[in-house]
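We store chain and fold; example below:
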Amino acid sequence: MMKAMVSPKGQAGFSVLKEPRGFKGDTENRKYSQQLILSKEEGEKFITFLTKEAEKLQAVEVERQRAKGKVLRTSPAELSYKPQLDGTYSFSFNRKEQDGPPQAVDSAHAPLVDYLTREHEIQVAYTLKPYVKAGAVFGVSLVLLAVKAFGRSTMTMDASELFGKADVAEVTKSVDLKDLF
C-alpha cells in the first residue's frame, strides 16, 4: 500500500464527500471527490513535491513494464491539477465508491457534519496511485483518504467586495409579482 501524505492547507473547492457521484449522472464509476485550491506560491511548491514523488513512482513503473517487455513513454507524469485564472491552483482528489466514503473531520478531529464550502480552509490526506493509459502515458492519481476542515479560509473574499461600494437604492413602492412579468 502507498504511504499516506497530507496536503498543505488551502481553500475547499467542490466537495462530494457524503454521496458519490458519477460523471454527468453516470451510475457507474461513481466517486467521492474533494477539490483543494492553493495560492500560487503554495500551489507551485505542492506541484514540485508531487512531481518528485511521481518521478519516483514512474521509475518503478518503467522497470515493471520493461520486465514485461513493454515500453513506457518517459515524459513527465500527468498530475491532477489545473491552474486557475486568478493565479491559484486547483487540485482534484478522488476516491472510488467501492472504497467507501472518505473521513471528514473538523480541527478537533470530530466527525464533520456540515457540508464544506469555499469558506472552509482544509487539508487533504491522500495517497498517490500510478496508472498507465493506452499509448503508454504514465500518470498519478491523487487518491482521497480524508479531509480536515479548519474553518473560514483566509483566501475567501467577502461577498460585499465583489460589488464594490455602491449607493443603496431606495425602494419607493412595493413590487407585485404581476409587475415583473
Remarks:
- Helices lie at 40-67, 159-163, 177-180.
